[in-house]
Inverse folding.
């Protein structure tokens, strides 16, 4: 190779400066997100359906994940994600990260489940739970630098953490996850969302703070879904969702669901709020015959009439509420959407047969990123 003369070197240097300047200008022109918006991620689309038993009448379940139901195969088939029902490969997780980040989502909050129910920790069962696979895939993804993640502890029936010793065991287990470089932090503290503060243990949460400090964190930012008192260890209030009616399958309008969520927005300087907005709620695919289990799950109201425009209007109101209430929100303006893929419950953002262009994701990009 011939040596570069002085003039050529100067020209190259000047060109590099121009390129660097253009890149810097491009970065400076990138729109600043109006809020740090995340989405709850439900990992029931991996593992094996209990109905995949080889019987001819259950052929619809062959190769399907744990929370797939016959109703999703038939009358609610429009909810089928464009990539199908399984989300348990590294390639698909990378695709979801890019899709979410491109449209203004900053983090996923993965549902996390305790084993054994009401007993001591069963690490093997936790690690083998298929509902934890997508989170592990996220942690290993080559492109996970584009997003962050945190845990939503789903301490409801079947996965209850009971007593101070179990909560201490859970705290020690979570500490390894908190150390992941993409784990979401609030003022340096890992964010931990507890689904049901009624099932938590103040002594166990106090131990969590102690263990975090020993691990080099300033503490843990523990958020309660619902009413969790500061004296019980809850620094933040939020929700998973806000469904106003249970006990009967009854049709209501999406605006009622929106208003129910907006009524939950409110915090204090001592206990700020992470506001939540729902894409929808209609869990009929899991209810009754053809739902989850032989009799289906608990019946609730369902909501119709949601549109991308109605979702956009509420998302705008959430951004404006954060603007107007800096004393009631976190300093980094955290907010949440229910949900990325609660497809069985009727709250999802992922593109599907009924929304192949991802209209709701485009709404988020327009409101959050302004493009």
């Amino acid at each position: 190779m011939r040596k570069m003369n002085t003039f050529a070197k100067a020209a190259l240097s000047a060109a590099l400066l121009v390129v660097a300047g253009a890149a810097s200008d491009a970065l400076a022109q990138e729109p600043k997100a109006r809020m740090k918006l995340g989405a709850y991620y439900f990992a029931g689309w991996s593992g094996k359906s209990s109905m995949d038993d080889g019987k001819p009448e259950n052929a619809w379940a062959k190769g399907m994940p744990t929370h797939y139901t016959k109703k999703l195969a038939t009358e609610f088939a429009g909810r089928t994600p464009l990539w199908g029902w399984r989300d348990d490969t590294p390639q698909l997780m990378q695709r979801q990260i890019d899709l979410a980040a491109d449209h203004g989502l900053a983090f996923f909050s993965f549902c996390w489940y305790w084993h054994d129910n009401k007993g001591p920790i069963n690490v093997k069962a936790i690690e083998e739970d298929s509902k934890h696979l997508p989170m592990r895939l996220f942690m290993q993804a080559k492109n996970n630098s584009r997003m962050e993640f945190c845990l939503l502890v789903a301490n409801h029936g079947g996965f209850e953490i009971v007593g101070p010793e179990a909560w201490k065991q859970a705290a020690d287990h979570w500490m390894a996850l908190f150390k992941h470089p993409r784990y979401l932090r609030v003022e340096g503290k890992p964010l931990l969302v507890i689904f049901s503060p009624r099932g938590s243990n103040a002594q166990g949460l106090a131990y969590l703070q102690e263990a975090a400090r020993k691990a080099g964190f300033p503490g843990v930012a523990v958020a309660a879904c619902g009413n969790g008192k500061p004296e019980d260890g809850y620094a933040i209030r939020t929700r998973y969702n806000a469904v106003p009616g249970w006990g009967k399958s009854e049709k209501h309008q999406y605006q009622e669901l929106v208003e129910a969520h907006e009524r939950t927005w409110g915090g204090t300087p001592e206990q700020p709020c992470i506001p939540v907005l729902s894409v929808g709620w209609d869990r009929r695919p899991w209810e009754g015959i053809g739902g989850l289990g032989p009799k289906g799950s608990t019946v609730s109201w369902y909501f119709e009439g949601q549109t991308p425009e109605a979702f956009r209007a509420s998302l705008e109101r959430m951004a404006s509420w954060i603007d107007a209430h800096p004393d009631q929100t976190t300093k980094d303006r955290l907010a949440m959407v229910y949900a990325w893929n609660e497809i069985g419950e009727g709250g999802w953002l992922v593109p599907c047969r009924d929304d192949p262009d991802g209209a709701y994701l485009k709404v988020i990009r327009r409101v959050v990123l302004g493009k």
Q: What stands out?
A: The chain is about 30% helix and 15% strand. The first helix runs from residue 6 to 29. The chain has a mean pLDDT of 92. The two ends are 46 Å apart (CA to CA).
